[in-house]
Amino acid sequence: MLDPRQHWENVYSSKASDQVSWFQPHAASSLRLIQNCADQQAYVIDVGGGASTLVDGLLDAGYRHLTVLDLAESALAASRERLGVRAQVVQWVAADITRASLPALQYDVWHDRAVFHFLTDPDDRARYVAQVLKSVKPGGQVIVAAFGPDGPLQCSGLDVMRYAPDALHAEFGAPFRLLGHESEIHLTPAGKEQAFVYCYCVRT
Question: Which of 157, 144, 143, 147 lies closest to 195 in space, CA to CA?
Fold first, then answer.
């Protein structure tokens, strides 16, 4: 079994960052959800944000306390190169989210689009939720987007989980109160449709 870090480094070394299946030219849904729940002074972490353009949109909107975490350093490097000098105001973290050393009660917003559904091991999901509990402030918002019930069974050669909204929220449990959810059909650069579900909750 290929080491997960090496797997994702291989993905980003073999494809341009705008050709991976999850690429969005503009992360409109994520940006809207973050803006709806937090102002520009919020501390925001984008988990699995690697080469995503969400950080561009957040910077454009005036957010300055931003952390982008990804397992693949090459994905983070693609974003830093794209942003140029603006990358200097972002904290970049190359780490496995289930084992990363995160600051306690640091973040007002935790955002994850397309990481959680790769966690097929229940123990990894439990470690992920423990990280959220550790690092999100009480009253902080958690936004997680994963493949919906009609989403793919695999992505980038890896098995994935699919979730209805209630099932996704159940993974996080009682410390998180569900505020809402929505569905989105993502069109990949190859023209394929992928069903996503976005759930957003507050840490009580």
Answer: 147
Q: How many domains does the chain have?
A: 1
Q: What's the pLDDT tens digit per position in 65-117?
A: 999 999 999 999 999 999 999 999 999 999 999 999 999 999 999 999 999 99
| Domain enclosing residue 87, as ranges | 4-203
The domain spanning residue 140 has which CATH number?
Answer: 3.40.50.150
- Counting residues of the chain whose pLDDT is more than 70, the rounded percentage is 99
